[in-house]
Amino acid sequence: MGRTLTYPKKSLNTVKRYAHRATYDVKAIHSIINDSRVLHVSFSPGPEDLFPTTIPMIGQMGSFEYPSADLGEPLDCYIHGYVSARLANLARSSEQGLPVCISASKVDGLVLSLTPFNHSYNYRSAVLHGYAQLVTDDEEKLWALKLITDSVVPTRWDNSRTPPDKGEIAATSILKVKIVAGSGKIRDGGASDEKKDYGNEEVVTRVWTGVVPVYEVLGDPIPNPDNKVEAVPEYIKSYVDEYGKQSQQYALGAVGAKLPEEEQH
Q: What's the domain count of the chain?
């Protein structure tokens, strides 16, 4: 049996509300981060600013030192930004690294209960804390850019004009976040209500309860007006099809349902 790594529980990352839904499993948390199209990166701009700042960014978990490491291993979070952005400048001027909080969430179902009080979502969420430093090594920067590009559509890096030229590299910043704490929270299953409501015949015969699955579907690719490649490449078509199927499968599985037989093939 393989080992299962977890993030140590600290005051920083211990989930207190609905603690039974918490996970500290490294693989589960990293999977949520990598499955999210947008990460929200929060940081303090400086002592003169009253409010923290949150920026939506693209990022992925990975290890430059150990590229073959899977999601269950200790990984860094690489996030992409513009070279003159405030976040990059703050990270550049910090010797230890800029303290940041990275959060991500996926909604898998609308949970409809007998009362508004018990309505909920089936969801997956993750929060990471760590120190962001600017990547200055060109080899690591290119590796991280490929990692992030391929998270948009697998193998897109090799199927586009690469490597970037010097101007593009100079204008792009990559931040590597060394993670010090992490936690996740997952809600699945159906609706649940109070005993008093289950015993109310008028309510249970009038109010529909259950879960409306929520999943992402990628639309048919639309060529750019200046596109000169006649057919949509197979790597894009197969990803579009597989992504929607896997997303639907997870959302249905979260409530104990299965993908219809005809859609499994």
A: 1
